[in-house]
Amino acid sequence: MKLYSKRQMIWVCAGTGLVVAVVLIGIGNLLGLKPRSASSSLVVESIPSISSSQNQLPTDDSAPLDKSVQVQTVQSTVSTSSPAVAYGSPGYYSPDELETINVYEKYNESVVNITTEVMAINWFMEPVPQSGGSGSGSIIDEEGHVMTNYHVIKNAYKLFVNLADGTRYEAKVLGSDQQNDLAVIQFKPPAGKKLKPIPFGTSKNLRVGQKVLAIGNPFGLERTLTQGIVSGLGRPIQEDSTTVLRNMIQTDASINPGNSGGPLLNSRGEIIGINTMIYSTSGGSVGIGFAIPIDTAARIVPELIKNGFVNRGIIEMESIQLFPDLVEYLQQTGYGSPVEKGLLVSSVKKGSNADIAGLRGGTKAVRYGQYIFNIGGDIITSVDGEAVASVADLNTALEDNRPGDKVWVEFYRGKQKMTVQVVLAQQPRSK
């Protein structure tokens, strides 16, 4: 057995280690691997924090990294994230957006916020003023005339008009028409203050699907803009037991409490309707709103400004709407007719236009609940070519007629159907 000295053992181990290192380096060169420098590692780790997730550089050990390519990629990613068109420049908005923006900027200051005070009775039975409701209105001329809904100013003790610049003016009611839910109020702007009225368009040629804009003060949020389309035309809406609003415009533009009286505009900024009511099961907007056609307002507003009321013709009689219990009672008592819908003429005053035309009232007084009326009179079924089944229908049929106009009235007298012509009388002005 051959013995080695301590020095020999050291040299043998060193030689063996050198051989192993040379072999490993050779294998690495054959496989194409290169050691990473410290600076390269820093560059690779810094790239993901700068570039987007869509521009990650490869991290595979087999992919050689080039610093110049990395820097160029990061710079390219940053430059493509900026908008192609400068914010606020003409090309930034679509043509449809610009159309809407222009209408609002041109006419939002022509829409006023109307607030009211009403009289109430306190615990000591004393009349005291208190805050009423609020709504919207449209300035229609430079004299301070404002068009709104009748229900906005109904029972108002005081009226105030709030303009876009924050000024507030007391206003007065010039005229109102409950039958069409329209009113005109007026405030006096100070000398030198120029008002910008909104022009009237027409509701004659509206199309379902046409874009419309509503400006108003929902919940007191002044000059709010909503957009939608005309979603229906010619809707008859019964507002109360004696009033049917005809030819209403249906829209899905959001309308809420406070929008009443505000304008419904077309894309040219013309008023085509007066926002009036919504259909809702919750009290908030569900996308079904209704506006009075501007052609109705254009016919009525000048008369409201001039006279304070609409000079509308009427038939001078007292009548009651047929209902199932009454129809059954008429049949049992021998006063029945072939129809179950219509207006029973309760009384006709001697010398009235109904009396002159030949209409007859009832002859037998009966009580139904708290009401007393006469049976045995004529039953009217049509006036001026429109079917009549209620007082609201009668008012609607005569809505566009004036005193002195002649209308045909169809009715049943017993089983016999008859027709007479009635010359309309002056409607008494209600206070």
Structure description:
By secondary structure, the chain is of the alpha+beta class. The chain folds into five domains: 1-33, no CATH class; 36-74, no CATH class; 107-187, Trypsin-like serine proteases (Thrombin, subunit H); 211-307, Trypsin-like serine proteases (Thrombin, subunit H, Beta Barrel), CATH 2.40.10; 313-426, PDZ domain (Pdz3 Domain). The chain is built from nine helices and 22 strands. It has helices at residues 6-31, 38-46, 67-80, 95-107, 150-153, 294-307, 324-333, 353-357, 391-397; strands spanning 111-121, 127-139, 145-148, 158-162, 168-177, 182-187, 211-216, 224-240, 243-251, 263-265, 271-278, 289-293, 313-314, 318-321, 343-347, 364-368, 371-375, 379-383, 386-387, 406-413, 416-423, 425-426. The protein has a six-stranded antiparallel beta barrel. Strands 7-8-9-12-11-10 form a six-stranded antiparallel β-barrel. A hairpin with a 2-residue loop joins strand 16 and strand 17. The longest helix is centred in the first third of the chain and has 26 residues, at 6-31. It is elongated and about 150 Å long. The chain starts with 5 loop residues before the first helix and ends in a 5-residue tail after the last strand. The model is unreliable at 33-82 (pLDDT under 50).
Summarize the structure.
The protein is of the alpha+beta class. It is built from nine helices and 22 strands.
